[in-house]
Amino acid sequence: MNDLRIGVIVGSTRPGRRAETVARWIIDEAARHPGGTFDLVDLADHDLPLLDEPIPAMAGNYHHPHTRRWAETIAGYDGFVFVVPEYNRSIPAALKNAVDYLFAEWRDKAAGFVGYGATAGGSRAVEHLRQILAEVHVADVRTPVLLGVFDDFDADGRPAPRPHHAKAVDMMLGELLTWGRALRTVRA
User: Fold this and answer.
1) Which spans in the chain are helix H?
2) Residue 119 contacts by C-beta under 8 Å, 6 or more apart in sequence?
3) Residue 83 near residue 9, CB atoms below 8 Å
4) Where does the NADPH-dependent FMN reductase-like domain start and stop, copy by copy (predicted)?
5) How far apart are CA 74 and CA 131, in angstroms?
6) Contacts 24+ apart (CB under 8 A), 154-157
């Protein structure tokens, strides 16, 4: 069976964000996990305006080229790792908007999470994202990777993981690949 295609979604478009650096770290870590090909999917590269489709995403009738391009990107993956900063106890607006644009392209795929934030390491954003993704039928894996912005990054803003982070990464990616294989069968 072919490797799973996993999109590592950079969940922030803010200038100066850490999400891209964190996503690249996860892609590097994923190289130790056979069975998956991991690609960077940067929301900033898709330039999605606030949701402007006249028909709900569930219909799958996309009018705008930016929506069709986004749909094609997401449809090509078997699962996702969402790299999500915590903004005011939730996810960035750009990520919520990107999820809301689509429906079938998310359905019956697996998702893992890497959160980062100040006091709770992004845990509240991850939990909120789980609720949002449930509505588009994404199966999320249990183990998140959570990074504190004050303790788990170096002076240059790069992840400085501790031993428990490596364990969480391995568990999350293992769960993601297992669920991804199972859900590929569901989608067949």
Assistant:
1) 19-30, 65-75, 93-100, 123-134, 163-187
2) 148
3) yes
4) 5-145
5) 19
6) 157/18, 157/21
State if pTM tops 0.85. yes
Task: For residue range 63-100, list pLDDT tens digits in order.
Answer: 999 999 999 999 999 999 999 999 999 999 999 999 99
Beta-carbon contacts of 59 under 8 Å, excluding residues fewer than 6 positions away, are none
The phi, psi pair for 37, rounded to 5°, reads -110, 125
What is the CATH architecture of 4-187?
Answer: 3-Layer(aba) Sandwich (3.40)
Sequence-separated (6 or more) residues with CB below 8 Å from residue 53: 62, 63, 64, 67, 101
Q: Domain ranges in the chain? A: 4-187
Distances (CA, A) of 23 to 1, 55, 68, 119: 26, 32, 24, 20
Distance in angstroms (rounded) separating the CA atoms of residues 44 and 157: 19
Q: To 10 degrees, the CA torsion angle through 148, 150, 155, 161?
A: -30
The confidence band for 1, taking pLDDT boundaries of 50, 70 and 90, is low
% of the chain residues with pLDDT over 70: 99
Residue 122: Cβ-neighbour burial (10 angstroms; 0-12, 13-18, 19+): buried
